[in-house]
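Researcher: Good morning. I'm working through a list of sequences from a screen, and I'd like to move beyond sequence-only analysis. For each chain I'm collecting a predicted structure so we can compare shapes side by side. This is the next one on the list. No need for commentary yet; just the structure.
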Amino acid sequence: MKVSVLGSGPLTAPLSALLAVAGSDVRSSAGPEDAGHGAALDHAELLFLTLPGSQLAASLPGLGLRPEHRVVVCGRGPDEATGLWLSELVTRRTPCLRVGALAGPLSPAEVERGSPAAAIIASPYQDLRARAQAALHSPRCRVYTSEDLRGVELSASAARALTAAIGMSDAMGMGAGVRGLLLSRGLAELRRLGKALGANPDTFVGLAGVGEVVAASAAAEDSAYLAGRALLRGEADPHDEAIAVTAALVKLSARVKVDLPLLEAVHEVATGRHTAKEALKGLMERAAKLGGE
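Model: Good morning. Structure tokens for this chain:
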């Protein structure tokens, strides 16, 4: 299959390698400034956008996407400025209609080391799901599909925020018990938000949710985990993907009136309103509720 990878994010080279292993004919372009950009657009039966979510809105107008392009978004959203999911940005700001999202425990460092990988492709379009699965599936990378685009985008985005929370907790030396608490309570929050957005609750316990958090929080080099550790030192970059996604999800939860105490605590640390110790203390002192919710 003829596939192009557009962008210069950390997943660009590893994803291109996995596509080639699966037998796809792959071309890459960092963007419109790349001399091969036009050829990459003409080549593609399928396009993977590996731009970071925070850059997608500004980059889309210049990419030259066309109605015939099938697009798989690899970044994390929603977009903080507009509140739109990244797949929505593509359909609203380009002529493309057939759009999906890639998620799951695809660690760039592990892919580069040759470790096995797994991913999930979500889209309401069966044709896109089938093409993307065929383009990427190989003995090196198992690829699953889902119709629940919103659930996968939400799960993958929240996985970044939860991984940052675990990184912050680990940096404080809180231990496995608190790590388990953060994962379980974070997933409970995610299911509540997903329900409000019409997502399938089962999606959150799959590759895009639990799978990605478990893998990312176990990898010392994962960017979201490192962002969480940086939060403890007061050195987190507000433009880091995990920090930006957390802020966007907090805004989204306020709009749909869903309480996300864990993600809100991470956001408060990132914005300097609380220290990590104060945020964790506040979470532990929340009143217990029937059913643990």
